[in-house]
Amino acid sequence: MKWKDKKLPILLGINIILLLINMMFTLETPVKESISAQVAGVTPAESESNVKKKIALTFDDGPHPEYTPMLLDGLKERNVSAAFFLMGKNAEKYPEIVERMYKEGHTIGNHSYSHVQLSEMEELEACKEMTKANEVIKNIIGKTPDYIRPPFGAWSHNLDCITNMIVVLWDVDPLDWKCQNTDLVVKRVVSNVEEDDIILLHDSYETTVEATFQIIDTLEKEGYEFVSLDEIILE
Ligand SMILES: [Zn+2]
């Protein structure tokens, strides 16, 4: 065999070795990336965008003596703040729970004193319902609420002139009070929620408390961040 003929297999051999080395490096790159992403605690898809989609949790009709503290425990564990639209007469019964909500950074809103349909009332009577709830709340936390959620979402524009509070309705309503079914509440919220949405729930049911924790854990993994009402409404 001539040198020229011997050289060809040698060159081929070198090429194959170079190709293998090259492949090793190419294969290594994504593995390295995913390891570094794991170290940082995020998946590669998440690390591309750190902008979280904001949403807010709101709870009406409380406080409830048993389920509200249970809810507050889980929110604290998860470092999530929410808004509570309180019925004045419930706040009056459980002031220590209201105080705890406020101290733990939650927003306290007005939900009338006795859960009345404000839009159907005489202005003066409607005003009394709202003012009475505000007085109860102010006596506990030292501050008048900035927000009101009218019971049943029933608001009339002629009431705007008698209150400075901002009326807050909602975007997602899983009817938790009606179904009282944890799985169904989770499913209804998770499949319908969008960025900047306000979620309506009620802290008077154990099923809702459990659903809330599952909703937070699921949606945080999907890139949502639970923020205060201020962040949704004022920004
Ligand atoms: Zn209500």
Walk me through the structure:
The protein is α/β, with parallel strands linked by helices. It has two domains: about 5-40; about 55-235, TIM Barrel (Alpha-Beta Barrel). Helix content is about 55%, strand content about 10%. It is built from ten helices and seven strands. It has helices spanning about 5-40, 45-50, 65-80, 90-95, 95-105, 125-140, 175-180, 180-190, 205-220, 230-235, and strands at about 55-60, 85, 105-110, 145-150, 165, 200, 225. Strands 1, 2, 3, 6 and 7 form a five-stranded parallel sheet that branches. It has a two-stranded parallel ribbon with strand order 4-5. The longest helix has about 40 residues, at about 5-40. The radius of gyration is 28 Å and the shape is globular. Residues about 1-50 have low confidence and may be disordered.
Tell me the layout of helices and strands:
Layout (H helix, E strand, L loop, with lengths): L2 H38 L3 H5 L4 E8 L6 H12 L4 E4 L1 H6 L1 H9 L3 E4 L12 H19 L5 E2 L17 E2 L8 H4 L2 H11 L5 E5 L3 H16 L2 E3 L2 H5 L2
Helix pairs in contact: 3-9, 8-9
The structure holds zinc ion (ZN).
Characteristic key phrases:
binds zinc ion; alpha/beta; 5-stranded parallel beta sheet; 53% helix; 7 strands; 12% strand; TIM Barrel; two-stranded parallel ribbon; 235 residues; disordered N terminus
Summarize the structure.
With 235 residues, the protein is α/β, with parallel strands linked by helices.
